[in-house]
Amino acid sequence: MPALKVNLALIAAGLVFVAEDELGAARGYMALRPTGMGGLILLEGIFVDPACARSGFGTRLFATAIEHSRRMAGSVIMIFSNPHAVDFYSRLGATKIGMTPFVFSPDVQLSVFAFTIPAP
Ligand SMILES: CC(C)(COP(=O)(O)OP(=O)(O)OC[C@H]1O[C@@H](n2cnc3c(N)ncnc32)[C@H](O)[C@@H]1OP(=O)(O)O)[C@@H](O)C(=O)NCCC(=O)NCCS
Fold this sequence. Notes:
By secondary structure, this protein is an alpha+beta fold. The protein has a single domain (about 1-115), classed as Aminopeptidase. The protein has helices at about 10, 55-70, 85-90; strands spanning about 15-20, 25-35, 40-50, 75-80, 95-100, 105-115. A six-stranded mixed β-sheet has the order 1-2-3-4-6-5. The longest helix is centred in the middle third of the chain and has 15 residues, at about 55-70. Coenzyme A binds near residues 48, 57 and 88.
């Protein structure tokens, strides 16, 4: 689905990060998008190779999201979570603030989370 592809403009802007394993193989990515509204940063996407699920890559990528958002003067990361990732974001300390239909498949409800970036 084109809308779910990694956005080249975000790569060029240095907002896409890749997690590698100890051999240097790409195992996941995370992308951020500043919204221009106060300190609100959107988690554009986070994806881990299913073969590496539950190995900590997602947590590492989210830690990078926090670190980079802080550098961009972010105070809150907003997340639109698919139903399978809800436990992941809850475990990371994000707060569920609502639900919204997935624009490309409105029968799927996304959970909206807000993660408050802690002071360094
Ligand atoms: C969601 C996703 C990013 C998690 O990445 P991950 O590398 O597997 O996550 P971690 O190993 O860092 O997991 C950290 C904790 O989150 C929770 N968690 C992660 N995946 C979970 C799952 N499928 N079910 C329940 N809890 C889960 C667990 O508490 C886990 O800790 P534990 O393994 O010690 O119990 C990954 O599964 C993924 O890419 N999914 C497909 C794409 C996706 O849904 N992306 C989110 C878009 S909104």
